[in-house]
Amino acid sequence: MSMLPLCPQCGSEYTYEDGHMYVCPECAHEWSKDAVEDAGDEGLKVVDAHGNALQDGDTVSVIKDLKIKGSSSVVKVGTRVKNIRLVEGDHNIDCRIDGIGAMKLKSEFVRKA
């Protein structure tokens, strides 16, 4: 049995080769074999405002007052956030802030502590 990659769009295991492309029969997503080879060593890379690489479980400090949408609360400069999780998307840090609760932050507004 050949080891074809899972579909990056839907995660299907039923991908097949079509020339120099891989195709997913479930979502009709097509991608090149070169993209799979290039993405093999790539992971989720997130950097803080100063260019330092962040990892899951790091502690960061907020470098700017951040207004919380839909609330009158503010995350103040210097607030330390422990045990962050990195996620895909625009707000790429998922965390829990004491006194506020769970929220997502942009990495451009934090620095590694």
Summarize the structure.
This protein is mainly beta and 113 residues long. The protein folds into 2 domains: 1-39, N-terminal domain of TfIIb (Single Sheet), CATH 2.20.25; 59-112, SH3 Domains (SH3 type barrels), CATH 2.30.30. The chain has one helix at 33-39, and strands at 16-18, 21-23, 30-32, 46-47, 53-54, 60-62, 66-67, 74-75, 80-81, 85-86, 93-97, 101-105, 110-112.
Explain what the structure shows:
- It contains one helix and 13 strands; from the N terminus they run E-E-E-H-E-E-E-E-E-E-E-E-E-E.
- Helices cover 6% and strands 33% of the residues.
- The protein folds into two domains: 1-39, N-terminal domain of TfIIb, CATH 2.20.25.10; 59-112, Roll (SH3 type barrels), CATH 2.30.30.40.
- The chain starts with 15 loop residues before the first strand and ends with a strand.
- Strand 7 and strand 8 (74-75) form a beta hairpin.
- It is mostly beta strands and 113 residues long.
- A three-stranded antiparallel β-sheet has the order 1-2-3. A three-stranded antiparallel β-sheet has the order 9-6-13, with no helix packed on it.
- It is elongated.
- It has one helix at 33-39, and strands at residues 16-18, 21-23, 30-32, 46-47, 53-54, 60-62, 66-67, 74-75, 80-81, 85-86, 93-97, 101-105, 110-112.
- Residues 46-113 form the Protein YjdM C-terminal domain.
- This is Alkylphosphonate utilization protein.
- It holds the Pfam family YjdM.
